[in-house]
Structure formats: structure tokens, C-alpha cells
Amino acid sequence: MATDERDILELLKDELDFIEKGGYGRSVRTPQQSKSTFQDSLTCINYGYPYRAHPCNECHLLEFVSPEHRTEAVPCHFIPLNTDGDTIEDLELKDNEAKLERQVSAWLRARIKEIEEQRA
User: Fold this and answer.
1) d(Cα 11, Cα 80) in Å, to the nearest integer?
2) What is the pTM of this model?
3) Residue 74: CB partners within 8 Å, gap ≥ 6?
4) How far is CA 68 from CA 40, 63, 72, in A?
5) Phi and psi for 70 in degrees, rounded to 5?
6) What contacts 21, CB < 8 A, 6 or more positions away?
7) For residue 117, what pLDDT is reported?
8) Residue 60 DSSP SS3
9) For residues 108 and 76, what is the distance between their CA atoms, to the nearest angstrom?
10) Could you give the CA distance from residue 46 to residue 62 in angstroms, rounded to a whole number?
11) Share of the chain residues as helix, strand and coil, in percent rounded to the nearest 5
12) Is 90 exceeded by the pLDDT of residue 112?
């Protein structure tokens, strides 16, 4: 159960904004290091900590992860992003950053719309 007190709708909107502004692009200082979706943004409850200060089961994103993947090292990377069941993990292995960003953005838009409709 998530104990993160932040609003999930605002988190998802901020993540989408982060992606649309190029947030996961390569750093000029460390271009050899790729960034990790969700982990390298403020969406992650452990962002900015050199170690995991909070267990992933405190994160809102866990509700989108199927039960069999909730104990993975990075469970949010196992969120099914589309009807084919592609996950962040799958798309990172294919090393296609543009497709990954498109799929995550589409997933975020869909979740934002669902939550806004539920709250209306």
C-alpha cells in the first residue's frame, strides 16, 4: 500500500511534463550514462537519495504493477505500457529511447485521463 502522500494525478502530470521537456535526455556531463525512467525523475520516492530510503511498496506506481512483478528490484519498470504488454524493462532492453518515451508518454496520458474522469 502506497504511503507516499503526494497526489498521484499531480505526479503523473509532472512526469509527463518532465518527459516532454526532454528530462530523460543524455546529460552533457555524463553522456555515456543513460537515465532510468521514473527512477531519475521526481516521480521516484527515492529520487535524490544515494541509497533507497523508502521501499518501492510505498510508491503510488506500484498499483500499476502486476502482483508477480511487485518484488522486482525496480517494479515500476514492469508496468504494462500498452495492449501488447510492453514494459519499460522490455523497451530498455531494445535500447530504443524514442519508442520508450512515446510509450511511457501515451501510458501517462491514459492514466491521467482515467484519474481525471474518476474524480469528475
Assistant:
1) 18
2) 0.86
3) 36, 39, 56, 89
4) 24, 12, 9
5) -70, -15
6) none
7) 97
8) helix
9) 13
10) 14
11) 50, 0, 50
12) yes
